[in-house]
Design goal:
145 residues; alpha+beta; Nuclear Transport Factor 2, Chain: A; 6-stranded mixed sheet; 4 helices; 31% helix
Amino acid sequence: MPEESTTPDLEEALRRWFEAANRGDFGAAVSMFAPDGVWEFPPLGLGVLEGGPLMGQDAMLKSLEDLTESFRDFEFESEDFHDLGSGVTFNVLVQRGMPHGSDGFVESRLGVVAIWRDGRVARATSYKDVDEARAAAERLAQERG
């Protein structure tokens, strides 16, 4: 009988994050991060994420709750996922929502570079420039390989 792989399916883990976040189960979503995980964001002009990196699951949970409560409808989507090896992934995070009092949607696209440890994200860095994020992910995977 062939041995099962012990390598976690990082794309599947990320898919579960999006499912949890989109149903508003932010506790399940942030559990994808290591307890001491860090998520860095560029200045987005959203107020919620302007205080520097989110350090730990509690900070990520609060930030997701604060971000989405400003919207009547809000969703997250993943585009263009790549497992680059050596515990490094790249994907495009699309966030869209309809602010309270508005009939229009706002949308942002971020390139996200993640370093995984034991099946969880240890550090994620988001970039406004998707191409810059892709290049950073490729360099990081090469350095760690």
